[in-house]
Specification:
- By secondary structure, the chain is mostly helical.
- It is built from 3 helices and no strands.
- The chain starts with 6 loop residues before the first helix and ends with a helix.
- The mean pLDDT is 77.
């Protein structure tokens, strides 16, 4: 996300990340469940882990 320069694309990506985050919190799903249920891709899972690490750091 840090490399995105197009505001519309960034906004869309942030919205998608927020939806995933809300699904994760609301359903208390583990990352493995999200991947296993094909709710997110491997790339999205990596990004989510990195973003979570940044937030917690």
């Amino acid at each position: 996300m840090a490399n995105l320069k197009d505001y519309y694309v960034l906004k869309t990506e942030l919205k998608e990340l927020k939806e995933i985050y809300n699904d994760y919190n609301n359903d208390e799903l583990a990352l493995d469940t999200l991947l296993g249920g094909k709710k997110i891709s491997n790339t999205m899972a990596t990004s989510l882990m990195n973003d979570t690490a940044l937030i917690h750091g």
